[in-house]
Structures are given as structure tokens and as C-alpha cells.
Backbone:
């Protein structure tokens, strides 16, 4: 009788090895596929940034707003929306350049909807707007009447850049003012002391580590920063007086009495009157700003366009605004190719001086990090 020898079952070790090899191969394939896709997208972004799809090589498209659709003479609306901050103003700059160079644009309305921003970006934008108003002989750009229209907010740096306008219109509920300067310098020394963390600073220059996160400011260091803030504050007042001669420094610093508004004394007791001044750093609504001479009249965008046309002596005109284009890099990547979220985080968390309504600081810092 023949006996059948049972076959040896497959080794568990062999199955395990094959499984690991298969997983490794699948992982490698997926990794390489993703890497190739990222490489293609990166190359496309670099290429498209240099092609004719870039915002910098084409005129902005125009959108009709008001007036005669067939009129050749134009009143251009230049829109400033959002924070005035380095790296976030390319579209505003492009609008200004196009309005300045277009001979059919006879006057300009600066439409401001901004809480302000950094002192350097605000001052640079002010310079560009001033050149738009006064003309640029170097580039053969003529002077053009300038009217400013305030939207929901035009505070601090938003007011600073509006100063060159021959006429400022605000909506009744516009938030404006916030004429002042401030700087925030985070300090975590107590937190470090609590957890026993130490930091060693090696420096050359007595106050080189001024404003550092891991030490308290000395009175001398604080005064150095205060001097910078005061210098920027005086510059702010100078800019206002230059654009609006009635608002001298004395007027801007003159105190006035305010009676609190209390619609229902049954809900809360009457508050005591208090004092303010125009350049105290606080905000005013559009109606109060008109009473204080910070704006010329109450009106909306279409009213500002009409006023700009009058200043240019136009009986027939076409009011237009410039559209913000999307290049192919934005469409494909939905992000700026020139900066990363880490770059934005570093930029926005760095201590700096602001022409900004302080109530918007956190929103500004977050938007700078998350804006694509």
C-alpha cells in the first residue's frame, strides 16, 4: 500500500516577506507619483510666473460702473481693499500705474476699505497716490484730480493714504479716524521662567536685543521705541495737515467734550462725559468725522465719481474700475508661487510699527498667514 506524504504548508515567514515587499512597492509607487506631480506643478508655477499670463505684462481689464457707456473720457476707480502691508498691494499699485498712464482717464476716485497697515507700506502707497494726483513728468503722466471715497472702514493707514485727495467722501456708517501709531512686542520671559527655560543672547551693541521676546525692556530701550513711534505719529499729522490745511497739529490735538449716548437709561445708568481729540487714535463714524472736518461730505461711491468728474470739468464721462486678473498659477495652485505659509507667518509675527486700527491686529496677522 502506497502512503502519501502530506505536502508541507507554505511558510508563514514567506507570506510575511511577500506582503512587506508588496506594501513597500505600493508605497514607493505612490510616493514617486506624488513627487512627480508636485514637480510638474512647481515647474508649471515657475514657468507661468514668467509667461504672458503674469499680471505685470498686461493691462487690467475695465468694468463699467456709471455714466455714459460710449464716452471716451473716463473717471477711474482705484480700489484699496484690506490691509496695507508689504507684499499685498501689487494689484493696487497696478491700478495706480494704469490710471496714471491712460490719457483717457481724466480723474481718479480712490475707494478705500481698509483698517490700515504698516507704516512703511502706508507711506509708500501715499507716495504713489501723491504722484498720481500731481503727475509724473519723468514718465509724461499729467496731474489728475483725486477724490477719495470711504467704504465700511478707512482707518489709520487707510486715512493716511487718503490725505492727498482734494475731496474726501465717507458713508454715514464708515469707521474712520484711528489717527495714531502703535507697536506690539510679545514677551514670554515669565513663561520661560515658569518652565525653567533659559536663553543666552550674544550681541554687539548695547541695545541690539531691544524688544526681544525673552527679556523685559529697560526704560532706555522703551524710550528708543517710543521715539520711533512719536516720529511716525508726527509724520502722520504732517501728512494730514499737508493734504487738509485746516487740520493743523493744534486742531488735531485740540480736546473736545463728548456726551455719551444712552438710548435707554432703564438698561444702564448714564455715563459721565469724557474728552477726546481728533488724533487720539480712536475711531469715528462718517457723520462725526464730517463734523470734525476729517471728511468733506457724506456720500457713496457714485457720488465720489460725480465729484471727480466735476473736478476734471467733464460733462460726459464713463466711470470704470479695474478688475483683478487671475493668472494660471493662481488657478492651478490657488496660491502665490512667490511665498509660502511659513514666509507669511514669519513676516506677520515680526514686531513692527502700525498705522492700523488695533482692533484689527489679530485679524490682520491671521489673514496674512492664511491668504493664498
Residues:
Amino acid at each position: 500500500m502506497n502512503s502519501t506524504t502530506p505536502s508541507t504548508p507554505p511558510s508563514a515567514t514567506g507570506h510575511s516577506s511577500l506582503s512587506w515587499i508588496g506594501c513597500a512597492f505600493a508605497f514607493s509607487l505612490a510616493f514617486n507619483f506624488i513627487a512627480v506631480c508636485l514637480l510638474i506643478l512647481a515647474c508649471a508655477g515657475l514657468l507661468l510666473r514668467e509667461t504672458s499670463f503674469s499680471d505685470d505684462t498686461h493691462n487690467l481689464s475695465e468694468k463699467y460702473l456709471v455714466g455714459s457707456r460710449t464716452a471716451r473720457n473716463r473717471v477711474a476707480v482705484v480700489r484699496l481693499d484690506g490691509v496695507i502691508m508689504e507684499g499685498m498691494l501689487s494689484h493696487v499699485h497696478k491700478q495706480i500705474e494704469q490710471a496714471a498712464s491712460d490719457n483717457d482717464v481724466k480723474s481718479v476716485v480712490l475707494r478705500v476699505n481698509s483698517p490700515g497697515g504698516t507704516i512703511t507700506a502706508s507711506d509708500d502707497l501715499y507716495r504713489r497716490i501723491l504722484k498720481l494726483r500731481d503727475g509724473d513728468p519723468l514718465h509724461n503722466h499729467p496731474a489728475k484730480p483725486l477724490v477719495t471715497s470711504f467704504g465700511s472702514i478707512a482707518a489709520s493707514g487707510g486715512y493716511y493714504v487718503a490725505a492727498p485727495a482734494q475731496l474726501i467722501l465717507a458713508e454715514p456708517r464708515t469707521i474712520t479716524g484711528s489717527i495714531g501709531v502703535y507697536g506690539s512686542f510679545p514677551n514670554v520671559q515669565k513663561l520661560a521662567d515658569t518652565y525653567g527655560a533659559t536663553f543666552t543672547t550674544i550681541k554687539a551693541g548695547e541695545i541690539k536685543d531691544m524688544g526681544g521676546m525673552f527679556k523685559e525692556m529697560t526704560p532706555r530701550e522703551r524710550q528708543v521705541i517710543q521715539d520711533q513711534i512719536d516720529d511716525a505719529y508726527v509724520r502722520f499729522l504732517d501728512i494730514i495737515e499737508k493734504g487738509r490745511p485746516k487740520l493743523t497739529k493744534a486742531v488735531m490735538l485740540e480736546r473736545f467734550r463728548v456726551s455719551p449716548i444712552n438710548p435707554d437709561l432703564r438698561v444702564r445708568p448714564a455715563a459721565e462725559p469724557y474728552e477726546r481729540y481728533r488724533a487720539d487714535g480712536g475711531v469715528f463714524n462718517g457723520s462725526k468725522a464730517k463734523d470734525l472736518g476729517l471728511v468733506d461730505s457724506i456720500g457713496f461711491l457714485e457720488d465720489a465719481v460725480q465729484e471727480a468728474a466735476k473736478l476734471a470739468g467733464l460733462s460726459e464721462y464713463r466711470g470704470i474700475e479695474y478688475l483683478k486678473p487671475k493668472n494660471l498659477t493662481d488657478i492651478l495652485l490657488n496660491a502665490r508661487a512667490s511665498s509660502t505659509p511659513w514666509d507669511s507667518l514669519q513676516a506677520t509675527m515680526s514686531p513692527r510699527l502700525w498705522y492700523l486700527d488695533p482692533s484689527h491686529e489679530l485679524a490682520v496677522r491671521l489673514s496674512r498667514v492664511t491668504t493664498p
User: Anything to note?
Assistant: The radius of gyration is 29 Å. The CA atoms of residues 86 and 121 lie 6 Å apart. The longest strand covers residues 105-114.
